[in-house]
Amino acid sequence: MTNKKNKGFLKAFAILATMFSFNANAAFIDIDFTIDGNTWDNPFTVQNNSSAGLDITQFALDLRPNSDNFLCFDEAVNSCHTSGGLNFKSVGSDDVGFLSYSVVDAVGGIDAGDFLSVAFNGFSSGESFSWLIDVDDNPDGSVFGNDLIGSLFYVEMSDGITYQGVIEAIAGNDDAGQMILKGVSATTIANAITSVPEPSSIMLFGGLLLALTRIKRKSII
């Protein structure tokens, strides 16, 4: 009986390995993204902890899943509320090759800038990037990191793969949020802007990993 379970585990592992055989580095993606406190005066930070040789080429923060709270990026140059705003501004050194950013009104959300993307050339493993930008809600209240829970995060790596995560709570830190990677995204950042986000369908990758864990656990028992 144990042999059958082990064969089942090996078969599932083979399926997963086949899916990602085009790039072995896919298993070593680790991106840390946090926002702690008020988004007006506390920076967002992304840390690239991936395996050596994998750079971040672009990432995006998608507020559309929080459309019920009318969350939007409120810049002075492109304000979504009457309270004014804070333009995008990088914080600290520029050793990650920051190239450009854009805030757009993506499909399927509110009628305001709710999709931020940032591009790089040389955002290597072990490096981090911090920036300021105001996020507002309806009414014009302060937005903290925990208010972003449920928002989506996309990251494109130099291996050509786009990964997707969800902003979740941080235990013991009531006003913060952190990104938890869920797997390979079904779309690129460019395509995500013109498609309605579906957080519940974040690829088969996460499901296969869960299946592998369960099969392995049963085989041990």
Describe the fold and architecture.
With 221 residues, the chain is of the alpha+beta class. The protein has one domain. The protein has three helices and twelve strands, in the order αββββββββββββαα. The protein has a ten-stranded antiparallel β-sheet with strand order 5-8-2-1-12-11-10-3-7-6, with no helix packed on it. Strand 10 and strand 11 form a beta hairpin. Helix 1 runs antiparallel to helix 3. The radius of gyration is 19 Å and the shape is globular. It starts with a helix and ends with a helix. The N terminus and C terminus are likely disordered.
How would you describe this structure in keywords?
alpha+beta, 3 helices, 221 residues, two-stranded antiparallel ribbon
Structural class label: alpha+beta
- β-strand amount: 25-35%
Largest sheet, order of strands side by side?
5-8-2-1-12-11-10-3-7-6
When the domains are counted, the total is: 1
Question: Any low-confidence stretches, pLDDT <50, length ≥5?
Answer: 1-27, 200-221
In DSSP terms, counting alpha (H) and pi (I) runs of 4 or more, how many helices? 3
Element order: H for helix, E for strand: HEEEEEEEEEEEEHH
Task: Report the span from N to C terminus.
Answer: 11 Å
Average per-residue pLDDT, rounded, comes to: 78
Shape: globular
Residue share in helix: 10-25%
Write the layout of secondary structure elements.
Layout: H1 2-19, E1 31-36, E2 44-48, E3 56-62, E4 72-73, E5 89-91, E6 98-104, E7 115-123, E8 128-132, E9 135-136, E10 152-157, E11 162-170, E12 173-184, H2 189-192, H3 205-220
Antiparallel strand pairs: 1-2, 1-12, 2-8, 3-7, 3-10, 4-9, 5-8, 6-7, 10-11, 11-12
